[in-house]
Amino acid sequence: MKRDFLRLWDFSATEIEEIIKRAIQMKESGPSGECPLIGKSVGLLFEKPSTRTRISFEVGIYQLGAQPVYMTPQEIQIGRGETIPDTARVLSRYLDAVVIRTFSHELLEEFSEYASIPVINGLSDTHHPCQALADLMTIQEKKGRLKGIRLAYVGDGNNVANSLIEAAGRMGLILTVACPEGYEPAPEIVEEVRQAGGDIVILSDPREACGGADVIYTDVWVSMGEEEFGEKKRERFRPYQVNSALLGCAGEGVVVMHCLPAHRGEEITDEVMDGKESVVFDQAENRLHSQKALLEFLLAR
Ligand code: CP
Ligand code: NVA
């Protein structure tokens, strides 16, 4: 039976722990020449730009002994109207797994329904589970544990926020989201995670959210596909900038995370991005290790 990774919520706490443990081992050993995916091919179907997701998957797939096959909808027949079910059925005959970056999460679900291979969400408008996996790995490395860690997410209630909510709920972090009214994370995700016992607070004051935080996390105010709302959002989100004053509200030893790319001077200042609390580049590196462990989990067990 194939497994997908469309939402972080698709995996149990035990499975996530196992993947993070393996990712840390893989990071320590480096590209060791072990090739658990030799002879396999993994597709990367990307409808939006990407630096980290694309490159970390391409390199990781190669390091595992497999071959990455990158494609955009315009380069394959989807761009000329071939249906998602037909594309999913055909690609399943060639590939061993596929990573898809797209707008609509429903497209991923439809693709998965017709694919006989694992489908990995490389970002949709509502979820970014590969990012959340690397984020958990980074928090584990920096703080030595996940359970009970106080995580403050400041900014837009977007795909990254939704996946962090699922990550926090699964792994027992205490998450406070601070966002302007009208820009909250998906209510059905918050509800589902709370129902399962997740400690998730949504409020509007960033200073309150950061009080006593172990980790402060932010993301861009204007996500891919939202460019037309840019001006309005930039104005509305100005009080949500992660800067030195906001960091001052947090606990001793706080670390600052950002999934990147950052819009320096908007959601985060240069001073904080480049400051001693920032772990953003370790976090970006961990995309490689955590996705290698994810691919091994899905394809080589
Ligand atoms: N964080 C992240 O997914 O970055 P990219 O858009 O560069 O892939
Ligand atoms: N929320 C951002 C994340 C980019 C990695 C976006 O969707 O554009």
What labels describe this entry?
301 residues, alpha/beta, Rossmann fold, 2 domains, 5-stranded parallel sheet, 4-stranded parallel sheet, 12 helices, binds phosphoric acid mono(formamide)ester, binds norvaline
Oligomer: single chain
Describe the global form.
globular
CATH topology of the largest domain: Rossmann fold
In whole angstroms, the N-to-C terminal distance is: 12 Å
Q: Using DSSP, what is the number of strands?
A: 9
Summarize the amount of helix as a percent range: 40-55%
Percentage of residues in strands: 5-15%
- CATH top level of the largest domain is Alpha Beta
What's the story with the biggest beta sheet? 5 strands, parallel
* Ligand identities: phosphoric acid mono(formamide)ester, norvaline
Largest sheet strand order = 7-6-5-8-9
CATH architecture of the largest domain: 3-Layer(aba) Sandwich
CATH superfamily of the largest domain: Aspartate/ornithine carbamoyltransferase
The SSE string, one letter per element, is HEHEHEHEHEHEHEHEHHEHH
Show unreliable segments.
none
Mean pLDDT: 97
**Helices and strands: which structural class?**
alpha/beta
**Tally of individual helices:** 12
Structurally, how many domains make up the residues?
Answer: 2
Explain how this protein is built:
This protein is α/β, with parallel strands linked by helices and 301 residues long. The chain has two domains: 8-128 and 287-299, Rossmann fold (3-Layer(aba) Sandwich); 131-283, 3-Layer(aba) Sandwich (Rossmann fold), CATH 3.40.50.1370. It has helices at residues 13-29, 52-63, 84-94, 105-114, 129-143, 159-171, 187-195, 206-210, 230-237, 244-247, 270-273, 280-299, and strands at residues 41-46, 67-71, 97-101, 119-121, 150-154, 174-178, 199-203, 215-218, 255-258. The chain has a five-stranded parallel sheet with strand order 7-6-5-8-9. Strands 2-1-3-4 form a four-stranded parallel sheet, sandwiched between helices. Helix 1 crosses helix 5, helix 1 (13-29) packs across helix 12 and helix 5 packs across helix 12. The protein is globular, with a radius of gyration of 19 Å. The model has no long low-confidence stretch (mean pLDDT 97). It binds phosphoric acid mono(formamide)ester and norvaline (NVA). Norvaline (NVA) binds at residues 123, 158-160, 219-220, 223-224, 259.
